Amino acid sequence: MESERAVTKKEGIDFAREYGCLFLECSAKTRVNVEQCFEELVLKILETPSLTAEGSGVKKNIFKQNPT
Predict the structure, then answer these.
(1) Nearest 10 degrees: CA dihedral of 24, 15, 47, 29?
(2) Could you name the domain of life of the organism this protein comes from (predicted)?
(3) What are the pLDDT digits (tens) for 18-53?
(4) Domain encompassing residue 31
(5) Under a CB-based contact definition with an 8 Å cutoff, are residues 24 and 37 in contact?
(6) What residues contact 42, with CB distance under 8 A and at least 6 apart?
(7) Is 16:22 a contact under the CB 8 Å cutoff?
(8) Helix or strand (DSSP H, E) at 51
């Protein structure tokens, strides 16, 4: 399994640290930690008042969107 990684654990941790993000590992393929990752994400959102404040929304989208 370790050899099938797209990103090493260290790379993931370093990326999360650089961007001030939470680092969690899960696998859709083996279903390991998938539910726990969603639960942790929801808890972090609820613990961050600015994310649930009225009028809050996506200020900047870093992902490219395909025009429809």
Answers:
(1) -30
(2) Eukaryota
(3) 998 889 999 888 899 999 999 998 898 888 877 767
(4) 26-52
(5) yes
(6) none
(7) yes
(8) helix 49-52
Q: Which amino acid is at 39?
A: E
| Tokens (6 digits) for 47 | 């613990």
- For residue 56, CA distances in Å to 9, 26, 43, 49, 64 come to 32, 28, 17, 10, 21
**Alpha-carbon Rg of the chain, whole angstroms?**
15
For residue 31, tell me if it sits in a domain: yes
| Confidence band, pLDDT 50/70/90 cuts, at residue 67 | low
Its pTM surpasses 0.85: no
Higher pLDDT, 6 or 1: 6
Q: Which amino acid is residue 40, in one-letter code?
A: E
Say how far apart CA 18 and CA 33 lie, in whole Å: 23
**Could you give the CA distance from residue 66 to residue 23 in angstroms, rounded to a whole number?**
28
Name the domain count of the chain: 1
